[in-house]
Design a protein that fits this description.
Strand content: 5-15%
Structural class: mainly alpha
Helix content: over 70%
Number of domains: 1
Largest sheet: 3 strands, antiparallel
Length: 147
């Protein structure tokens, strides 16, 4: 009997981002109810479409490569923001959501974030990804019998 370990790895990977996505939709509801002039739904295209897919494929890649690399799951997950940030920034720039300036980035022509804040936020994201992949995705991999 084939146990489909890659399918189980994909499902374990997409669980958390898919679980969090309805929480992100509350921002769209707030925009519609409170008449906020910032088009938040444009910024949600990337997280809703691409992030769960990449998390699932990233977990499949870990399962496939772990016998050869012996890379811990948390460290493997901490590498993912290094791929997501440039892709997300490029997509946001192409959609007109993000403008890159000399002193920082501007979201929706409203909120300016200086580069001195982006680096610590990115490091916090890497640390968060490490912890989420080590404990949440690792737990789900164990429950599904692929860890």
């Amino acid at each position: 009997m084939n146990t489909h370990p890659y399918l189980r790895a994909y499902l374990a990977g997409i669980f958390l981002p898919t679980f969090v996505l309805p929480l992100l939709l509350t921002f769209v509801i707030l925009r519609l109810v409170l008449q906020v002039p910032v088009p938040v739904e444009q910024a949600l295209i990337f997280p809703m479409a691409v992030v769960p897919l990449l998390w699932g494929l990233w977990n499949v890649l870990w399962l496939w490569s772990s016998p050869r690399t012996h890379l811990p799951l948390g460290l493997h997950g901490a590498i993912l923001p290094f791929l997501l940030m440039p892709v997300g920034a490029t997509l946001a720039t192409c959609l007109g959501v993000l403008a890159i300036g000399s002193h920082g980035v501007t979201w929706f022509q409203v909120c300016q974030v200086p580069y001195t804040l982006i680096a610590p936020m990115f490091l916090a994201a890497v640390a968060g990804y490490y912890l989420v992949w080590k404990y949440v995705v690792g737990f789900l991999n164990g429950v599904l019998g692929i860890a």
